[in-house]
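Sample A.
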Amino acid sequence: MRELKFRQAIKARGVLPFQWRYWGYIYPDSPSLFEPPLGNVEWDERPSYQFTGLKDSNSKEVYEGNVVRFRESSFDEWSTRTIRYFGDRNYPAFDVFPEIDADSNGLSYIMACCEIEVIGDIEEHPELLK
């Protein structure tokens, strides 16, 4: 069974606008692997994001909400997309948005055929989507 991991933005009073809190489970019924941060913390209103189970070309974990850039090895031009979970569309899978024309799931195609790099997050860097 795969490890389930999540992250959520939290606000720590007087420290940063927000920072990421990570937590996860080896099995859904097991205790959390990560403890909540200590100190005076307020939960932000931002959503939680799930780990896709994938890593980019630099071995960085890919979470929903990440902004990634990718290119096929024969091309110089990079494309930018957001990682999303499409369960609300009756399609229970992580994919990229805007969608790409591929014979399979767009994220699976990118992971198999392209160089991919996490360049930010929609929470921290919304300008990356422009």
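Sample B, a different protein:
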Amino acid sequence: MKKRKNIDLAIVIGAFPQVSQTFIVRQAIYLNATVYTNNYVQENEKYYNLDKLKIVDVGLNRKSLIFFAFNLYRRIYNRTLKKSYYKWHFLELRKLEKTISKENYTGLIAPFGENGIASLSAARKYNIPLVVQFLGVDGSKQLNNNQYRNDLLPVFDYAKSVIVLSDLLKNNISNAGCPEHKINKINIGLPIADFNVINIKAKHEFVFTAVGRLVEKKSPLDLMKAFEYCSDQNDSVYLRIVGDGPLKGLVKNHLDKSRHKKKIKLYGSCSQDKIREIYNESHVFVQHSVVAADGDSEGWPVAIAEASACGLPVISTRHSGILDLVVHEETGYLVDEHDYESMGKYMLELSLDIDKCIKMGKASREHIEKTGDINDQLRKIKEILLK
């Protein structure tokens, strides 16, 4: 295949846009890529400015009997086998191939392994280089599904590059059969210049903020226990939790019984603008990520990266890509998974030392500037495709 100087890319993704996947919207915009989706989530348009994107919906007609039957099959599969159904409908794959055939793409990018599987036929048929990104659950929990692992093997064979976000995911993907020379560790990156640095200053209220889905791998109960440990010794601390998810009921139940329930606020899902407002009133970002019982793990947590870009110190766990985002004792603190007492001690330490917060917050911003600028990360992907 001849090398080309110009680059014309397409991103193949399942549901789009999703509230928890801002990074994919950013990636599409920064790469000026056409987005092919089998599930355009129109109700989420309010969270993003999609004016610059060309989006092609190749999904089934939602009013059709085929759509109803396929959705029913997926729900039964998920419930019966306790595994996520990852395959696209053959009519969606056929439409994807047909629409892609009308273009002349330099490369296809598939965020998440299941979309790499969906992209493979079109990429092969039209000889388009394929890059597959493993971003978290697809490179951890889903690998427990033997059929998924088997379906990934031809993807690994054809793909020009397989991108992972952390050493943990790299090890998982290598063990799943991907040749190591094809694996590249490249994080998602952020538009750093779009994030204004917060002016951390002493106030009567010291605010910890967490942003993320209420799921097992975020371990929100460990986070709340850590805050309670801190709050037992410092009455001026408060916790703000932004996010929604399957553990919402469990979190609310714990909150109702908490001795510090008046100092913990649950915001639910919020727009990016609202999250920025919350950050502006915050002193420290906190996240207690763990490997879930089913193996689900983080990739490169965007919420931590965004908090760092805002100049907040971060207290988190020694888990997957967080090890690249947080420099222990320089940009924040790291504790072992489920060690909420140690997390609480670090929360207490920072809540009593505003000067250290300011110093760590500045270092946090400098670190993400060096390691997580979206332009640098996407340039690496373009270079791979142009080789």
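Observation for Sample B: The chain has two domains: 9-189+373-386, 193-371.
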